[in-house]
Amino acid sequence: MSETGARKYPVDPPSAALGFRLSWGAVFAGLVIATALQIVLTVLGAGIGFAAWDPGESARGLGIGAGIWAILSVLVSLFVGGMTTGRLAGILARRDGVLHGILLWALSTIFTVWLLSSGVSALAGGASRMVGGVLGAASGAAAQTAGAVAAGPEGRAERLGERAENMAQRNRAEMDSLADTVMARAGEVAEEAEQAAGTGAWLALLALALSAGAAVAGATKTARQ
Q1: What is the pTM for the complete model shown?
Q2: What does the pLDDT look like over 112-171, one tens digit per residue?
Q3: Is 83 in contact with 4 (CB distance < 8 Å)?
Q4: Tens of pLDDT, residues 57-100
Q5: By the 8 A CB rule, do 218 and 91 touch?
Q6: What is the rounded end-to-end Cα distance, in angstroms, of the chain?
Q7: Between 94-151 and 154-219, two packed helices, what is the crossing angle to 10 degrees?
């Protein structure tokens, strides 16, 4: 008995009914593309900013422009990385694209935080070593000076001792005045720092939300409804 009609299949291919598919290779490929593109955009923005900035002008405008460029570079790089992830993963459903985009954004955020923390730690370690070297050199010079003074004539040693005492008294007076000024400004500085920290936290949260949306939009661009 022969078949009289052609066999009909659903509109979507059979693999669409297999459920969620996760491609870590596509996610890491998107991460590599997003990171490389962000580096390129950052270097490009730095070149344009320093070329357009006049040293006689205030650096406030340069800082605002750098912040805006940084946010735009993150959004563009994550969107392109999400598109790369979606293309390589062969996403069939929008929910699959959303999860791939979220994974790409999460890995990119963790990687960025790790790089920043490593850089800060390296800078702090270098500054500590530099300060230690300067203090060691100063201590050695002071010891040599004290030895030379002790070996000299008594009159010269007394004059140098009086001069050192006078300098110490002037330094103490200046330090007391500076301490009073700092204490008077401590409340204002603390309040300004608290306001800046609050604003920075909200801006960072907004940037994270926008970057997550860019990654998801790129990953779901080729997905089916």
Answers
A1: 0.62
A2: 888 888 765 666 566 556 655 555 655 555 555 555 555 555 555 566 666 766 677 777
A3: no
A4: 666 777 788 888 888 999 999 999 999 998 888 876 888 889 99
A5: no
A6: 40
A7: 170
**Cα–Cα distance between 222 and 82 in angstroms, integer?**
10
Each residue's pLDDT tens digit, 204-218: 888 888 999 999 999
Rounded Cα gap, residues 177 and 174, in angstroms: 5
HEC profile of 95-137: HHHHHHHHHHHHHHHHHHHHHHHHHHHHHHHHHHHHHHHHHHH
Distance CA 15, CA 12 (A): 8
HSE-up (13 A, CA, CB side) for residue 20: 9
Q: How far is CA 217 from the centre of its chain?
A: 24
